[in-house]
Amino acid sequence: MKILIVGAGIAGLSTARALALKGLECDVIERRQEPPTEGAGIFLLGNASRALGDLGLLDETRSLAYPIATQRILSSSGAVLNHVRTDDVWKNCGPCLALSRQSLVDVLQKSLDPGAVRYGLEVTSIASRADRRIVRFSDGREEKYDLVIGAAGVNSLLRNMAFGADEAREVGISCWRLVVPNNGEIVGWTAMLGKGRTLLGIPISKSETYIYADCGTDEFGDGSLATLKRLFCDFRGPLGAVVAALDPETRIHRAKLQEVPAKRWIKDGLILIGDAGHASSPSMAQGAGMAIEDAIVLAEMLSRPGQIEEALQRFHDARIERIAWVQKKSQDRDKLRNSSRALRNAVLRLFGNALYRKTYAPLTRALLPPSSGSRTSEAER
Ligand SMILES: Cc1cc2nc3c(=O)[nH]c(=O)nc-3n(C[C@H](O)[C@H](O)[C@H](O)COP(=O)(O)OP(=O)(O)OC[C@H]3O[C@@H](n4cnc5c(N)ncnc54)[C@H](O)[C@@H]3O)c2cc1C
User: Fold this and answer.
1) Higher local confidence (pLDDT), 162 or 348
2) How far does residue 155's CA lie from ligand 1's centre (Å)?
3) How far apart are the two ends of the chain, measured CA to CA in Å?
4) β-strand partners of 190
5) Which pLDDT band holds residue 371 (cuts at 50, 70, 90)?
6) Measured in angstroms, how far is the CA atom of residue 11 from the centroid of ligand 1?
7) I want to staple 64 with a disulfide (CB 3.0 to 4.6 A). Which of 24, 103, 235, 276 is the partner?
8) For residue 35, what pLDDT is reported?
9) CB distance 135 to ligand 1 below 6 Å
10) Which domains, and CATH codes, for the chain?
11) How far does the centroid of ligand 1 lie from the alpha carbon of residue 112, in Å?
């Protein structure tokens, strides 16, 4: 079976690794000229680390990550609205970890053979002839594949090429992401909620803390440092102080949050995975987890006897409910954190822990029934 993966982000690299573990080869192409050399942080909940374990990469990831034992939500004035111990939900699934995005991509990249990813290459057209995909690349070459896996992120051109529509839509929230020195004052995952604004801090190592801030896109304007400081000037506590003290040299990543509706993104030997097929706002911190899970389930289905189209259908059937759940819950969380202060604070104080458990417990379940070949976590055995 000749397979092409388009995009060497978290989904594409994980899929290449998962296929290799099943003895399946693939070509991987990436539009960037070289692997990324910087990025902000990423938070991985227990299902994401379990999936990294399935790829044989949990120990290495853990050695580069900061363990997150608690998730706290505070009001902008610093009052505690909710405090969860991550173990209460994730203990039997996997550890909750925070690390630099760069470190995660490095772990995935290094798990592949050197030269496995061809950088600086894009797909310029794709056509179906008989049961093969004829792919033309930006260097003028043309090759035939049995399967093309689109893992090119939320703004995937492949989605437009194959499905004729760009279904990425803005969710009306824009964000800043940056890394600051860890001064020891932000313990665990700590979010502060203001009116239509969220500020989050997560230690990603002993020396660094990842900061995420968001607001309505209408308020974001040019996303300058001055805007960031102005919008969060009334936030108290360690997070407010961090924003107030930011210096103009700090490297800041800016983004408008987008989502892609989860549906059957399969056509003529082409499938979309990761953000290309189901990007969500990051409020569930599940984008990477869903991308790595996609990789494991897709490789498992492709390794079974049968036609490719059957494998893709089995993949869709195994994934759609879980992905739709994450998307729905991300939307619900965005709605709640941007609802009236009184309602939001009361809900979080009274039902915060129950909501956390209800939202995440379904994701602790096994990816596939045990008989179907997926690894079961140590604790489940
Ligand atoms: C602000 C923000 C915060 C987030 N925080 C978290 C978090 O804490 N935890 C979490 O789990 N998730 C988080 N996510 C989500 C997570 O980052 C994504 O779900 C994840 O990166 C998706 O991986 P991907 O490989 O599908 O896409 P991407 O990471 O976007 O990778 C796509 C790759 O394809 C390449 N590419 C694009 N077009 C082409 C082309 N035409 N040809 C070849 N290559 C191409 C790109 O260069 C890129 O390398 C966050 C997202 C955002 C926006």
Assistant:
1) 348
2) 9
3) 33
4) 72, 201
5) low
6) 8
7) 103
8) 82
9) no
10) 3-169+258-366 (3.50.50.60)
11) 19
